């Protein structure tokens, strides 16, 4: 178990290699300042003249912000199966708690094969399921930031090499390989079962 964790914590962050995100993401917001008979356009690029890829309802809540434009006027959000940009002035942040406080549950996904990893509010319970793998719930034994970067990467785990998991959640741009959605958190997950370990890589989002 210790050897597995050592390899996990030393693995380079693919998300961060793709490019740093702006601070304070991911975060949750609600749409404000839009007329009740209108909607908020989600655009392909952070400019009002670019194509519309989706819309958000005038009173939409639980909108996950995964990046900001360099000038701070636009926010990158997800709408349906695509991501796009909306004007920041029409969003109001609904929580000041950073993701690593785990006030909001996380939902993580990946492919090859398709799998799901969920983390409850408070990071007390983790669930894992995959094709041909029965859903499994774990009582999380520990969580920890890295000594040098205590809030950019969070490790957590449960159990042992016969039945447990080790994981590292990192801030960084991530693609799930299934959609055009953007994510601000990368997951490296190792499931331990019957003395064997299987590794998975995917993306996480806030799941209000």
From TrEMBL:
Keyword Signal: yes
InterPro entries named among the record's database cross-references: SH3-like_bac-type
Signal peptide: 1-17
Signal listed as a keyword: yes
Keyword field: Signal
Domain SH3b: residue ranges: 30-95
Protein name (database record): SH3 domain-containing protein
Organism: Cognatishimia coralii
């Amino acid at each position: 178990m210790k050897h597995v964790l050592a390899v996990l914590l030393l693995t380079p962050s693919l998300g961060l290699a793709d490019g740093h995100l702006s601070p304070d993401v991911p975060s949750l917001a609600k749409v404000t300042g839009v007329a009740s008979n209108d909607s908020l356009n989600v655009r392909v690029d952070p400019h009002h003249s670019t194509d519309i890829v989706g819309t958000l309802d005038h009173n939409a809540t639980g909108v996950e912000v995964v990046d900001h434009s360099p000038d701070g006027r636009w926010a990158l959000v997800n709408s349906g199966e695509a991501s796009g940009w909306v004007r920041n002035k029409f969003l109001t942040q609904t929580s000041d708690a950073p993701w690593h406080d785990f006030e909001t549950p996380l939902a993580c996904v990946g492919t090859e094969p398709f799998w799901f990893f969920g983390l409850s509010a408070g990071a007390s319970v983790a669930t894992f399921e995959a094709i041909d793998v029965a859903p499994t719930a774990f009582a999380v034994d520990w969580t920890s930031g890295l000594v040098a970067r205590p809030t950019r990467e969070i490790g957590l785990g449960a159990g042992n090499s016969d039945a447990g998991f080790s994981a590292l959640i990192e801030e960084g741009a991530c693609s799930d390989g299934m959609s055009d959605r953007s994510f601000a958190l990368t997951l490296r997950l190792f499931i331990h079962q019957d003395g064997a370990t299987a590794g998975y890589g995917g993306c996480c989002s806030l799941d209000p």
